[in-house]
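Tokens for NmrA-like domain-containing protein. Go.
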Amino acid sequence: MAEIIAIVGATGTQGGSIISALQKNPAYKLRAITRNPDSEKGKALLAQGIEVVAADLNDEPSLEKAFSGVSIIFAVTDFFEPFARVGPKRAMDIEYQQGINLALAASKIPTLRLYIWSTLPNSTKLSDGAVTVPHFQAKARVDDYIKSELKETLLDRTVFLWVTFYVSNLTYAPFTPFYAKPTGRFITVTPVSTQTKIASLGSLSNVGTAVEGLLEKDVHAVFANKSNKEALSGGGKYIHITTGFYTVEDYYSTWAKVTRKDNAVPKILSVSFEDYEALFAEWGTEMGIMMKFWEFTGAEKSWQTTGPGDVLVDAQELLGASRALIQTPEAFAQFDWKDI
């Protein structure tokens, strides 16, 4: 009998990637969890034969009902929806509570064997308090909650998933190269050194690829092979998906070489944090803080450091030779850049 997998955020980027990866896999029956099944995206999923169930991340009982009978849950929260309405501080509170609601609901499902929580590194801890990235921090605090408050009911069934920088981020204003006609070239601005590194996800489909690969494995065996006697005693099982660490300069150079026939590498202007904020308002503040975190801490440390007892596995290592992640240059080539 096919296992039921509930996919929270089914109409979003990560959830959509998982649906694409698993849709034709007979081992799984997909249950798309969305706030509004009557939305165009919800109707599109229904038309594909996917079960679509309504649930509100702010309402734990609705989540528990939506998770009834499932074997696997993929859970993700969207910081930027409340951020756009109420700003970063309130958005962190909302996202944290949503993450708690998801975890509590999952912990009460007796049929559940695997809870995949899409989270992000703890920027405050990793920078020794120097930098707090709002859209990282609430998710990371949920990790701590699962490890402490749900240690007996959910932690053993949980895998924490770190998803790195999307290529599609270049379509959002703070990161978008713009063509400056007087100069005859593309220009982009950054509040950090051009040698600051970014951990690149590669193709958005890599999320689904990694999750499908995880589902095919004996999860405990995968992490036991990476651990020692002290590991996993109250710690978590982490997977990170990245196809490489690029300097800001190399990332944009790769984009240009893949997508532009004339290989027009953008001129990257390092500006002050204040000027970056002035250019992009609250989005400049939020993205600027993230970039400053990577500059201060280093991308490798940011994405390769876990807490006491935690075990971290690289997604490509998990997949082995059976399937490969789509690398960043190919991901750039596959993406539609018509609006840039």
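DSSP finds 14 helices and 14 strands in the chain.
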